[in-house]
Amino acid sequence: MMSVALKMLVGDKLKYIGLVAGIAFAAMLVVQQAGILVGLAQQTGSFIRDTSQADLWVMESQVRFSQDVLPISDGTLLRTRGIEGVDWAVPMYQGFLKARLEDGTRATMILIGLDDATLMGGPPEMVSGRLADLRTDKAVLIDHDARDTKLKLKRSPRPEGEPAGLRVGDSFAINDVEVRVAGEYRASKSFFWEPVVYTTYSRALQIAPRERKLMTYLMVKVKDGHDKREVAERIRAATGLEARTSDEFIRITADYILTETGILVNFALAVGLGFLVGTLVSGQMLYNFTLDNLRYYGTLKAMGASNLRLVGMVLVQAVVVACIGYGIGLGAGSLLGKVVGDAGLAFSMPWQVPVGGFVAITLCCVIAGLISVIRVLQLEPAVVFRS
Asked: pTM of the prediction?
């Protein structure tokens, strides 16, 4: 009987192709939008992942995401270093500062100040120069991928030159303090637009506007054999500040960005729209397909086929269409995601996305099949033999 159901499914090629195309479109929409949402969520924690040396981040308890600047007291550093289980602790400065490029172009940058002695927390990959070059006079490191976009000069300072981005050796000003590009780095794609510039902690304090508190984070390494959460509790008790693991910091950053900015709602609506489109399209087409084949179902029913067997035939047709349509839609969504990713936009597809998409699309088709099977269950076999 199942082979008969499949022959009925592919018998009308036009309806079959239209049904598969509708499912494929819904699958592509669900997978592609879910992939963008996951990509955005991953990008929110890119800075924390790139700064992988620390086990714990010590910060103000009211910090909501990684770029939320709430300074803490400098005295916290020595107190934290004396806590049992702490291997080392180094300060980090982070702040949004105004910059002026050589041609007068204005830009906003995220300035990161690294511990002068260890340079712990530096960028993951150097493209030119060395991390140790930060110890030279006025030195900063700039993002290689941002130099020709966010850090591009609007006009060339040279008479016959073309406008270009900053290069090693170029000078510019941050908060009216002159700095010099000592190297370029490459980091993971970030959700935040502003380019990130690295320098030493002491130089960052000289550049930053004067405030009573300037240290943004403490990066803490836990000694081998000590539990991170226990050390974090000791830090909280001793300093009154929050101590979070990298995973916890990434999670609260993603939660805040996705919920407070409305991104989660927008993409959830898009994924829900794909689910709704899939249900409506597949439901209508499966319903029409079932109506066109009522005479065959009536014949099978007259020959002794049970209602359960007929329901099974319709559901087999729905699942087969779902699998074929989803496979095509998944391929199209992945290809579109690659194009989006190559263009520098957010896209990621962990295994949960295709699995979740398959469950959603299959559920769409099963619901549509159950709607269309109602006519089959109400069918009287005698109708088939009427003239």
From this structure: 0.75
